[in-house]
Amino acid sequence: MVGALVAVALLVALAGLVVLVARATVRTALPDGRGGWLPARRRAEVAAAIHAARWSAAHDEVDGATRVLLRRSCTGPDGWPLVLEERVFATVPSDDPAWEARFTELMASARYRCDYLNAEEAAG
Fold first, then answer.
1. Using 50, 70 and 90 to split pLDDT, how confident is the model at 1?
2. Which residue range forms the structural domain that includes residue 65?
3. In terms of pTM, does the model score above 0.70?
């Protein structure tokens, strides 16, 4: 009888320890690698923001070439934009004589593609 009580007490103590460790180590890992301790309400807000993320066209300059990008982003928990995914849509050499025309055309195509991706995600 005493042995059974000790076993039950040990089991309850072990379960309590597991719960404490689990609560202490629950982290919300954000897609950009940042991790933060967030309460359940903030985790739900972050999940909703990620679910509402939209694709948009962007561009940058890398190694003498202009990259046209497709970015999926949302507002992060700190209020700043959080890029969830980034894809290179096209690249134009910076010294290309027809750079402006090609860049304008590629940005228009990237915006069209983003509209398509956003519509596709909205449809489910």
1. confident
2. 53-124
3. no
